[in-house]
Amino acid sequence: MRHARIHGVGGYRPERVVTNEEIIQFIDSSDEWIRQRSGIATRRWAREDETVIDMAEAASRQAMERAGVAPDQIGVVIMATVSHPFQTPAAAPQLAHRMGIPSPAAFDISAACAGYCHAVSLANDMVRVGTADYVLVVGVEKLSDFTDKHDRGSAFIFGDGAGAAVIGVSDFPGIGPTLWGSLGDQADVITQRESWTDLRPTMEDAGRTEAVPWPAFVMQGQTVFRWAVFSMAPVALETVKAAGITPDDLDAFVPHQANMRITDAMIKALKLPEHVPVARDIAETGNTSAASIPLAMSRMLDEGEAPSGGLALQIGFGAGLVYAAQVVVMP
Ligand SMILES: CC(C)(COP(=O)(O)OP(=O)(O)OC[C@H]1O[C@@H](n2cnc3c(N)ncnc32)[C@H](O)[C@@H]1OP(=O)(O)O)[C@@H](O)C(=O)NCCC(=O)NCCS
């Protein structure tokens, strides 16, 4: 079987910086509480007319340029997103068209904050067995469209952005075994509030006067917190073992940017050596779900915080509940 690795990563953050002051206009909260409980100082929100496809395009252009891979070398495009506002068609074929990738297999996957790590695993398998030489993987969200700005439990958490990676053939193994799984009995822990079919009567009833419900994403914060800390740290440790290394060998830890306190608790549970740099992109970018890991890795590489060629442990976890983790060689 062939080897695969990440050839390049790229990121895109929308221009508009949204402060905690702006968020607390709509909820009973404070800048201090949000910083202390989530580590978030600012997040980015996309323009009203800016779509997940626009953001994905910007991140993909950067990733492909850095990878030195041309559009006609890409055989598959996978977009991980839960905020493309169309049930169908998927966003990936439109992204591929814009990127000038000639007729690739292109599809979206729905694995929430673990979507990027799921897509990396699929891409790795495809490249290794020869289904494709290069796969474009994108994690992208416009969560501002699905945030209830009056919901105290989630209004301050979410942000918008895109991260992309080009995964392709390699002389050495650059993506370790993926550990992944799901807990479908916990579906209500993070969820869209109403289904599209629940909304149908409202949409059909033009005379309705009360507020129109909107399928915002809501969560049981404490349950997510406990699950992430107590269950995801052991998964992270198993992933490192499965890669045949120890935490001491890591050059970066890039967890999903869910909440700074979750990251801190995971570091403790993992007994992560102090020399390993940890992604803390959430402070300025918020929780961008599927986009958070590639955005954070891209930033660490750009700022020289993590070395190109070094080993990074990445772990995504979120609505489903679902999770996926792997050790990768950074491009
Ligand atoms: C959402 C989250 C920050 C809430 O923090 P928490 O410490 O669990 O907060 P709690 O719900 O226990 O509430 C603690 C106190 O803060 C208050 N509080 C809750 N939300 C608040 C807000 N937005 N602003 C100010 N105070 C708030 C509560 O009323 C409570 O007050 P009390 O102690 O006087 O009763 C936290 O649970 C979290 O981040 N969970 C994980 C969420 C996440 O990562 N989601 C994405 C997963 S991919």
UniProtKB/TrEMBL annotation:
InterPro entries: ACP_syn_III_C, ACP_syn_III_N, FabH, Thiolase-like. Its main location: cytoplasm. Residues 241-328 form the Beta-ketoacyl-[acyl-carrier-protein] synthase III C-terminal domain. Its EC number is 2.3.1.180. The active site is at C113, H256, N287. GO terms for biological process: fatty acid biosynthetic process; secondary metabolite biosynthetic process. Residues 257-261 are annotated as: ACP-binding. Keywords: Acyltransferase, Cytoplasm, Fatty acid biosynthesis, Fatty acid metabolism, Lipid biosynthesis, Lipid metabolism, Multifunctional enzyme, Transferase. It catalyses: malonyl-[ACP] + acetyl-CoA + H(+) = 3-oxobutanoyl-[ACP] + CO2 + CoA. It is an enzyme of class 2 (transferase). One of its GO terms (molecular function) is 3-oxoacyl-[acyl-carrier-protein] synthase activity. It comes from the Bacteria. Residues 107-182 form the Beta-ketoacyl-[acyl-carrier-protein] synthase III N-terminal domain. Pathway: Lipid metabolism; fatty acid biosynthesis. GO terms for cellular component: cytoplasm. It holds the Pfam family ACP_syn_III. Homodimer. Catalyzes the condensation reaction of fatty acid synthesis by the addition to an acyl acceptor of two carbons from malonyl-ACP. Catalyzes the first condensation reaction which initiates fatty acid synthesis and may therefore play a role in governing the total rate of fatty acid production. Possesses both acetoacetyl-ACP synthase and acetyl transacylase activities. Its substrate specificity determines the biosynthesis of branched-chain and/or straight-chain of fatty acids. Belongs to the thiolase-like superfamily. FabH family. This is Beta-ketoacyl-[acyl-carrier-protein] synthase III. The gene is fabH.
